[in-house]
Amino acid sequence: MKICYVDESGNSSQDPCLVMVGVLVDAYRLNRTREEFAEIFDEIQNLFEENLRELKGSKMIFGRDRWRKVDPEVRKRIAGYLCDWIADRKHYLALSAIDRNKLTKDKTAGVPKECRDEWLAGGLHIALQIQKSHQGKDKNKGHTFLIFDDNKAKADALSDLLWQPPEWTDDYYAKQKKQNRLDQIVDTTFSIKSHHAGLVQVADLFAFIFRRYAEMNDFGKPEEWAGEQALIEDYVATLSSRLLPRGCRWPARQNGASSRWFNSIAPASLMSLGK
Length: 275
Hints:
Blueprint: E1 2-9, E2 17-26, H1 27-45, H2 57-62, H3 72-89, E3 92-99, H4 100-104, H5 118-134, E4 144-149, H6 155-163, E5 185-192, H7 198-218, H8 228-240, H9 246-249, H10 257-264, H11 268-271
Parallel strand pairs: 1-4, 4-5
Antiparallel strand pairs: 1-2, 2-3
Helix pairs in contact: 3-8, 5-6, 7-8
């Protein structure tokens, strides 16, 4: 049994892309990971006089709000440490990214209307990656609970989408005739407040890192400070080692309409990461 904690970055319509990351953890290793994160969070809390409810990756890296008082080198080390920590814990990462301009162009012929929303498309893509990666595992070891950061406006729609997945998605993971759709996803999605789940906060940080990587490499966004791009690329190099196989995320051989569509709306730089 596995649990995947998911969060996104780039929710504003002004952001060129929305990026989702799922931190995928084996249930039997979850307690140790949660204990270690609590210890890490306590160390970070010592940097602040006031109570720190959650990390907020964009604020940490850009030094905004209360993070403004923390030395930039310390902020960089914290983000780098969390990247190394997940790699050392050998947890996998699911990654989805939606280029808003590509999504709004004539790319939706035959695509279920629910998927034309970038957040719903990203959530479905995360589920499809996990399905494709895990369906060959023995004795139900790939069965996965999906836990998303609370999104009251769209959580119910995503739950319905995954409870009754459209036939259009069958080709993504080569569904067999007698196979139930998305049979590796347990029931439907679950929502949680990010300050109640440390790994959702970690997913938020990683989603922001991948988003900034895409913004600078695909959309011409400038650095916020000298050396930002090199730092982000260093983080991404570490995280890329834990991504689910590229064939599960953006397969080079698109065997059907759904995989071709997800490939067509993704930022090019993120598609090339990992193996």
